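Task: sequence in, structure out. Protein: ABC-type branched-subunit amino acid transport system substrate-binding protein.
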Amino acid sequence: MKIYRKVILTTFLLMLVSINAIAQKFTTHSVKAGETLESIAKRYNVSEQGILNYNKEIKKGQALRANTILVIPASNGVAVKKDSVSEVNTLLQALKGDESGLQQREPIGYTSHKTKRKETLFGISKQYNISEDDIKRYNKELYSVQLKKGMILKIPKYKKVDPSEKAYIEDNYEIYTVQPKETRWSIANKYGITIDSLLVLNPKLSKISDYLSSGQELLLPKILGSSIKDQETQLYNSYTVPAKQTFYSLEKKFGLTANEIIALNPEIKERGGLKEGMILRIPAKKMETGEVNIENYNFYEVKPKQTEFSLTRKFGVTYTELLELNPELKDGLKAGMVLKLPKAQTGNFDVKNALILDKINLRDSVNTLNRPKLVFLLPFRLDRLDLNDNAATKSAIENRKDVKYSLGLYSGAMVALDSIAKLGISVDVKTYDTQLDLNRTKGILQKENLIGVSAIFGPLESQSLKEVALQASEYGVPVVAPLTDKSDLSLNNVFFALPSEKVMADHMMTYVEGLRTKENVIIIADQKNKPTESALLMKFPGAKIVALKEDRTVDIDKISKILSLETENWVFLETDQANVVYHVGSLLNSLISEDIGIRLFTTDKNKAFDSEVVSYSHLSNLRFTYPSASREIGENSFVKLYRKRYGADPDAYAVRGFDLTYDLLLKLAYKRDLVSASKLVGETEYVGNKFNFNKDISSGYYNRASYILGYENMNVIELKD
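Result:
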């Protein structure tokens, strides 16, 4: 009772005062001759130290250089009004035709960009078709520090509203029809653009799904010389212009004319010629090993500092094999090259849409500048609880599963918030009690501003979940359903955290198939589980069927006749009736001998297997094996943290609340976008749960990760695939 009282009090306080930090606002100031740090601080009504904190290049007592741009933190959280000089400059910009100074554009969304070695602000601004000032405006640290590798930049997206641009688009862009089996990545790769650019050109494309339908029309930039039709895939490498580079040397190096290079890199003309530090797009040499296609090959982008030796070890191929597929390697390995690899190649990496992705350690990849904003919507039913009456509160919790589930999930989530704070990540949290009332949920949504929300955790009830998902989808906000594996509606922005029964059943059958050599497979299924029996027969042709009698027992003579003496007998029991589990378990246990080995499996370990009538020792003797959404945990750091905070051990819901919240926050701190992070990261695993969210064509994101557990010597252990 102590633990739930603590959680309830914490929840109540959080709903009164959300964990929200005031966002700091900034302005900039161009230093004029004769100005000092003291005079500027007084002018903006801020402290000198406040200015120093955001401008590392200046020191206290040091003379300020004219024209230095300083970042000025706002006074009392209020943006500082521009002085008359700034206003005059704004008007001058407008007179010159630059309307951005007169009326700053508001972004319609954002994307993230991880900086690479030798990238420049100019190059990034051209890549996303925005100004360098736009990048700095939403990445304040760039006013005081230099751009460096590994920074996560917030890139604004703007709506195109100028009709005069239409003619330019028509002249330089074309409509492309999506072909069967094509993906966003393969199409973007054909045209030599990024997926983010593809989304900007086609704003109607879903931001929470990668799905493309055959025949769908996309707006894309025309490729130099002809349309995309009948052309082979063209890959590009990035090349950084060194000092004193000339077009003549580029022509010799890449076999391209100056006009071809300029056509591929229009910024050369815009900036008045080649400039040191420019990032040029150079066509990769045509592969001589046949047409590039994602059905037969995967592709990998070479990272800085990688060597031929490290790549051959990573992908389990010889350098000769790598060279045969990628003849351009004879000129040396370079960062940014895209290598072709056999489709069947496996290793310590993930593959998404034919693109090989390095497995990411989220804890080492978080960006502390990202500040996730979470909203918890759970039915705590505080309207029904009297915290002054312990007995009544305890009874209410024991008799209401929704309250128990909510308190368990939330208590684990609070420990996750503590853990994420230790990594230097700040999180804004708001918590609401839905009271298991759809109208109350609607009322919460009407009051809560969903703009800028990173994710919503909950609700638990299906009707409220549908309502929240529908409204959140308008703002591109993902909704995490902690205890749900599916929905009867198409909820494209929902992450269903529980693996479905089908996912776990498929995992179980695949596990047994990979383990099996000559074992004798026997299937016992009740009438309700006949579809599972059919699926098992397809997976294991020749398996023997033992039917249940009318009294739901098994004929001992029939099963004795089909048991093998030469190899182990593997029995699948598919039922949701406790008396069947009890009878079959007892019977099989009695048939085990020196000559007969029996192992028991199921694709669905439901409540029947946990019934009090079922013998735990019998299941242990039969080495009972089953799929599970979670695993049992022992003494670990999470348990110690939980015990220290609440004075009790966590239940399964607290473990799930911790794992799911921690996973959610790590991904948001990594990419600021749950959808993008889930695609890049792949499978993750924490204390007692693992997650691998994959998009369903017609619905949301489903968790495809589960465990295989087994009984051994009266203990339940995790069995490795």
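The chain has a mean pLDDT of 81.
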